[in-house]
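Q: Is it fine to ask for two folds in a single conversation?
A: Yes, each is treated on its own. Send the first.
Q: Here.
A: Result:
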Amino acid sequence: MFKVIQRSVGPASLSLLTFRVYASPKKDSPHKTSVKVNELSLYSVPEGQSKYVEEPRTPLEESISHLRRYCEPYTSWCQEMYSQTKPRMQSLVQWGLGSYEYLQNAPPGFFPRLGVIGFAGIVGLLLARGSKIKKLVYPPGFMGLAASLYYPQQAIVFVQVSGEKLYDWGLRGYIVVEDLWKNFQKPGNVKNSPGNK
């Protein structure tokens, strides 16, 4: 182990030492005069001032520039819409992947229940012939009724939450109608009708 350390320390320590090297000219070579730095071709300064001259644009470059200026609002709008919709799309993809995994490992009896709920929706659609309001009410109502038979706890929670929301909406509507009715009943708001002239 001592030999390894000695061999590795030796060359490394020599690299830290500094030496002076003296060179002597050969006796056979003729004596030359030294060359100044500004006389070297590498350091020569061009005479006169250089000036930047812009090349004229070709018709192709002009048309590309015009096309870029024309498309700039549309590309910025597309980038903005992309930045807004990207998080939504990512959440949608995550929801789809979660649903796919759930359907791959579905609990026993899930698919027959799903079939009964879907069949109830089709029956509601068939019974709702003739009226647009029936087409909006019957299929979701029949599907909700079938789903509440299979999932009673979730149905109770859904009815409670939706009942509270419907009550809030009804209360807000009642307040708005009451305010409109009071404003209409004030004597200053009666407009001149043709019979009052």
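Q: Second one now.
A: Result:
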Amino acid sequence: MAASVGSTLLFDPLQHSRTANRASALSFPRQSENRSLRPGRNLRSSREHLVLSWRRSRVTASAVSGSAGVETSAVGEDTVDSLDDVLVFDLSGNAIPISDLWKDRKAVIAFARHFGCVLCRKRADYLAAKKDIMDASGVALVLIGPGKVEQAKAFSEQTKFQGEVYADPSHSSYEALRFVSGVTTTFTPGAGLKIIQSYMEGYRQDWKLSSEKDTVSRGGWQQGGIIVAGPGKNIISYIHKDKEAGDDPPIEEIMRACCS
């Protein structure tokens, strides 16, 4: 998904009149009227610039990226702050702050739609195929799914996923990262074709996992994404948000973000 940002300039006649009058008044300024020469104004401007620069430096984030791999917008500080309160659970049922997964290392973290999803099983293989490169670069491979620990265990056993698997029963990480959800993002022509292709390649949906109450009521319509984060709790260097089911970014894009 290549996203473009357009801007619209609104013309306000009253504001234009005020601006024109101001420009007229400054046509032949005396030195005392030239505000740009006032030390106090320059000092305030410098302070504002420093504060803004400090705020921006708290979070290192490249971009929200889509299928075409084009950078579109940065991850905000509010997103990183929201993740501070998110807990995920390992396969032993231990609660772990999600940012601990990349606090002391770099990690590629895939967010599944749900643990029974056929397209997520294909995504797991698509990422695991590059795990040797990630290992050589000291990068961890992680998958998080919205659901219970028991569902995460079943997914891990069925797929033999080579990375770490965690459960997010509260869906808090999906909400913090603002991954999309809804029927219209799940049942699309593109997603339908990808499901057919996945079945032709031998992948299968686990209907038992897909039919559990939590998945049906919430996770069934949830879309996921992929991030590259760390080392450092505030470092998110790449994020891809799925626009629809099966919206995998090019693997080369992920590898550039994690291992180049």
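Q: Anything structural to flag on that second result?
A: Two points. The CA atoms of residues 112 and 223 lie 7 Å apart. The mean pLDDT is 78.
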